[in-house]
Amino acid sequence: MDAREAEVVADAFDVLSDPLRVRILTTLWEEDRRGPTSYSELQSAVGVRDSGRFNYHLSKLTDRYLRKVDDGYRLSPTGLQVVDLVESGAFGEAPDVDDIETDTPCPACGRNLVARYDDAEHVVDCPDCGLAVSWLTFPPAGVEQRRDDPEALLEAFSVRSRRMAAMGSHGVCPFCGREMDATLVADEDAPLPYMVRKHCDGCHGTMRSSPGAHLHDHPAVVAFLWDQGDRLDDRPLWEWPFVLGEGCSVVSEEPLRVRQTIERDGERLELDVDADAEVAATRRVRE
Prior knowledge:
28% strand; alpha+beta
């Protein structure tokens, strides 16, 4: 980010530096479900009697965070994103929740994986060897709502991890929306010898996954599981053995190419993955 871009961002945050302006945005969101909100309705809902003060702060938000329309005011797309961030709980303290032990064994050492939430991050990892199979941010508000229901919380973690993994696998950065490039890499020091590294040149977001996780929603995989009576979203990603690295073997070192195999009920699906993490070939084999 250059100096000019940084100045624009800093100015955008400065506009939101007054608590009354944040209240105007969140109140407008609550009122907006009935359509545009008139000036007087918005002022009354916010609870500010001084029209001069209210008008001053409203004018600071207009155009960038809200729009003046014929019937009153509406949030702009940017204003809506601000409210979403506020309502996510991102600016408050992350709730403390107990760790949740899963029934999934660690692919490296066999110890059951544990799901935990720390500093607004959801992690599923092994408490013994430290292998992390899922690691992403999760809005504090969603955790707070489910803190007394571990099963619902684990399901929410599962859904978010699956959606973010799918975005990265399809070349869309889940952090900023820009293009994300994928590369198949070999790493002898990593828990899994072959990984898919995804990187965004815009926000520099990086994701690493097993080849199986990278291919989890490929049409061939979805169809194969469906034919076997399974649905991908019937269980968390980290409960599928192929996502945790099972069935991945090297086809060639130069150029690097691996084969991901998924076996179910006497039939197996083979997917060859090239150096660009693209599926080069698929085949089904019945034993």
